[in-house]
């Protein structure tokens, strides 16, 4: 029998896809960690800089302590950290010295598996981060190829990048990351062999979502074609826009003749814990979705789908959801087919909302979209619409953005906060609003989540607030009946 491993995504991608990444606290994770360790997963998809920032903002908890606590409780389990490349807790690209410090800190606090998933599939950037992760002591490094559907994202496109990954000395696993759940069994029959042929010496890990309802069949087909690992969550945080459930995949894989070495009693106990937690907190458990062909048009990733829809519901604009979905593919094509993954999916999503709510398409263009057009996030996969590019470059801030600038200057930060500040705290100070870090330091271990931000009356307010939290410095938006300017407060 062929052996196949499961990577558990429950507390990272499952949590993000179904619960907006703002529910789980360190005590919750600590309570279930010893049980999870007994299940026997190949690895744990444990955290990201987004989740670390959420632990500060929502729970006033130290994210470094969270890693250490779980590491102590799961000493033999490989704990994973996913990074999009040159970013940490911010949409702004960070210089290499900042990224090296961030990786050094996550690794020395207990992370031993680093998954690099560069949003533009820029292999130079991805492999540079992979090399740094190895140099800083990561036991296992994955490079993910982010899957998308467009005229430019062909099997040949992915095979060429897989070959570059295979030629690198610092990569242990090739990962195929499908944030939108767009990969089908039919496409897997051509893509997986292309990847295996381009990188025959690397095990292949496949990570998809149930958004388009084909994930289970896609995993089975990928396993038949030589994938070594697939990513699942326990049932309460599986399905929906999350990953397939570990319970279902275990049964299906064994039924296909694969050997999957898991402790089913521990798996059932882990699943019961999250089912009881969902009931106690009033959070939904994952349910299988009905097939929706529009997924292949808008290509929203699971975590963004739940967050954006929740935001629109909370502010009374849920009736514009279908309009936004219809606008998304138009914006994406005009921007040269960026892959719908963080941060690019947020840029496309915010632009789609602006196009729908301002009454005139492309009349308002956020700074991050201008930076994207200027190439700050790497070269677009396809051709930009010339009219859209012209409007972006006519932005009053475009000239300033033409020269890449790093607000995240490590030397300046050390001078500002002093040479004695711990590296971990320095990174939080650099990346997050001062009031959030101050609240965390003032109330270490405070029970329960911090109060959410005050409710607002217009979707642009919530979306702009999200941009500011993720690193954008200055946002100005005009719409019928609304003029909004917001600046990120200095740390």
Describe the structure.
Helix 7 (155-166) runs parallel beside helix 8 (185-198). With 491 residues, the protein is an alpha/beta fold. It has helices spanning 10-19, 26-39, 49-59, 63-73, 96-108, 123-135, 155-166, 185-198, 215-224, 246-255, 264-281, 295-298, 302-314, 321-334, 344-357, 367-373, 386-393, 398-401, 410-417, 423-431, 434-442, 459-469; strands at residues 5-8, 43-48, 79-83, 113-116, 140-146, 173-177, 204-207, 229-232, 474-479, 482-487. Residues 446-459 and 479-483 have low confidence and may be disordered. The longest helix is centred in the middle third of the chain and has 18 residues, at 264-281. An 8-stranded parallel beta barrel has the order 1-2-3-4-5-6-7-8, surrounded by 5 helices. The protein is globular. The chain has 2 domains: 5-281, TIM Barrel, CATH 3.20.20; 293-408 and 453-491, Cyclin A, domain 1 (Orthogonal Bundle), CATH 1.10.472. 48% of the residues lie in helices and 10% in strands.
Task: Give a short overview.
This protein has 491 residues and is of the alpha/beta class. The protein contains 22 helices and ten strands.
Entry keywords:
2 domains; eight-stranded parallel barrel; single chain; 10 strands; alpha/beta; 491 residues; two-stranded antiparallel sheet; TIM Barrel; 22 helices
CATH class of the largest domain: Alpha Beta
The overall number of domains is 2
What is the CA-based Rg, rounded?
21 Å
| Global outline | globular
Structural class: alpha/beta
Low-confidence stretches: 446-459, 479-483
CATH superfamily caption of the largest domain: Aldolase class I
Oligomeric description of these chains: single chain
The percent range for strand residues is 5-15%
> The CATH topology of the largest domain, please?
TIM Barrel
Largest sheet: 8 strands, parallel, barrel
Strand order of the largest sheet: 1-2-3-4-5-6-7-8
Give the name of the CATH architecture of the largest domain: Alpha-Beta Barrel
Helix content: 40-55%
Query: In total, how many beta strands?
Result: 10
Count, helices: 22
**Quick check: average pLDDT?**
89
Distance between the termini: 56 Å
